[in-house]
Amino acid sequence: MESVQAIKQRFGIIGNDPSLNRAIEKAIQVAPTDISVLVTGESGVGKESIPKIIHQLSHRKHGKYIAVNCGAIPEGTIDSELFGHEKGAFTGATQTRSGYFEVADGGTIFLDEVGELPLTTQVRLLRVLENGEFIKVGSSKVQKTNVRIVAATNVNMFEAIKKEKFREDLYYRLSTVEIHLPALRERKDDIHLLFRKFASDFALKYKMPTIKLSDDAVNLLLKYRWSGNIRQLRNVAEQISVLEQNRIISASTLQSYLPNSGSNLPAVINNSKSESDFSNEREILYKVLFDMKSDLNDLKKLTMELMKSGNASEVQKQNEGLIQKIYGDDNSVTEDDVEELEVLSIPEKSSEIQHSSTPEDTQDKYHFAEEIEEEETLSLHDKELELIKKSLERHNGKRKLAAQELGISERTLYRKIKQFDL
């Protein structure tokens, strides 16, 4: 078994951090087996090196090694890319195609950004891990493959499982052995070492003198957060190597190449919320419902006053503020609205009402209106249906009297009766 230092030299890995050494040790130990491995760590820490080490130290080293970036393949074609498809399986499938699992039979597949896989593809992948079987898109024939899977992700898998974006059973099949690579900011002693290696490589590539950092520039380099990790450090070294004429780099020069990521000090978060701030959709729905309920109560109050006075113009004048609140600033009450409101008012002397109802019925009618004001419900559809039924029963099916009692036109009542199939 090769030593950690020999593996670093062989695969061009720079650094002496203990956590990095431990990750390489685990890769060396697990390589001779066929155990599935999950490599975790932030974007840019060099996760792609671990699958190469595992493949080259395994008995599959003479087989194919295929690296697949799951996040770069569109959701509609990823099943075809991984498992293949039959001719005519979908639009554009002009011929049968072999997928990566068929091509890499006997070798290793590296699934980078496995946390981005669609749920339907995760089910197919789980079957491959369990018994090595897969089915091409558009086919009914089960095929076998002998592939070792090494996956990598920068996603918090437990959060993804909690949000139902990743299958829990697939996670435990992939992470039989989990290898974590530390972020660059956790490897302080390796930062300057890596920068010097990159500076030397770019000087050789572009045929120019190697850049060197002053002491204050080195301090700045070590204190910077490096959110992009090794990939970001490499890009900064390449930019400075190409653009700077002076090959001794000061802290001010280095600072101009570093994005301002803000202070690393902990921030004080204000937990107070304004009255209009909603933490979730439920609160928004509650507010909408309460606003509707408030408008409904205002309309009930206005209807009661119309029923008691019978004078729409007078009620409009006395409740100008209330009407303004209900209809808004831009919707002034027109003559048609006044005529509609007059329908709501019940004439004190109506020969038709006198012949069809007694004073007791009139008293019950007002009592019924009071119940509407007191009773509170959010099921407006059921309440409307109930009110129409009661009104029709009270007036023996006479629509005109029922419409006057409900405060709507006879035509509107007819539409409601047809709508509720009464």
Characterise this structure.
With 422 residues, the protein is of the alpha/beta class. It is 53% helix and 9% strand. It is built from 21 helices and 11 strands. It has helices at residues 4-11, 18-30, 49-56, 78-83, 100-103, 119-131, 157-162, 168-174, 188-206, 215-223, 229-243, 251-255, 281-309, 312-318, 320-327, 335-344, 351-356, 359-374, 380-394, 399-406, 410-420, and strands spanning 37-40, 65-69, 84-85, 97-98, 108-112, 133-135, 142-144, 148-153, 177-180, 212-213, 248-249. The strands form 4 sheets. A 5-stranded parallel β-sheet has the order 2-5-8-1-9, covered by helices on one side. Strand 6 and strand 7 form a beta hairpin. The longest helix is centred in the C-terminal third of the chain and has 29 residues, at 281-309. It starts with a helix and ends with a helix. Residues 273-278, 343-363 and 365-378 have low confidence and may be disordered.
Residue runs with pLDDT of under 50 for 5 or more positions: 273-278, 343-363, 365-378
- Identify the overall geometry: elongated
| Radius of gyration from CA coordinates | 38 Å
Characterize the main sheet.
5 strands, parallel
**Strand order within the widest sheet?**
2-5-8-1-9
**Helical fraction:** 40-55%
Quaternary structure of the protein: single chain
In terms of structural class, how would the helical and strand content be classed? Answer: alpha/beta
Q: What's the total helix number?
A: 21
Tell me what portion of residues adopts beta-strand conformation: 5-15%
User: Roughly how many Å apart are the termini?
Assistant: 86 Å
Overall average residue pLDDT: 82
- What is the tally of beta strands? 11
